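re: ur question from earlier - yeah i can do the single chain one, its not a big deal. heres the input i used so u can compare w yours
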Amino acid sequence: MRTMFAWLFVGLGLSLPVAAGNLNFLKDGPVGKFTDRDWEMMQETTRTALDNAPDGETVSWSNSDSGASGTIRPLETYDMDGMRCRRTELSNSAGGLSGNSQFDYCQQTDGVWKIATPKQTPAAN
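and the output i got, formated as tokens:
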């Protein structure tokens, strides 16, 4: 199961930080019900949204064969350490389950998107 979830990120040209290596919690969510085609569709849609969608635009996918569907919406584009980064909101549903999450991705010099930990803004005094 972990291999399948890791494939999500690798297949997108994304890489996981070491701290996010335990992805077993995902098996209880909608992505745990995904077919291979659902994964492919989500990966294609996520790449498209990260590469091309303006902030605030929702990009959707839907697999009529499995009934699974999802969206990704870039919320904000920013620079961190010279990299183009995007904060996103993802929603997926499959097998009667639905879930939402937010991730920040930064694009590496080779074009690969990597899940990032955003820098914290110091609290105002």
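The first helix runs from residue 2 to 11. not sure if urs matches, ping me
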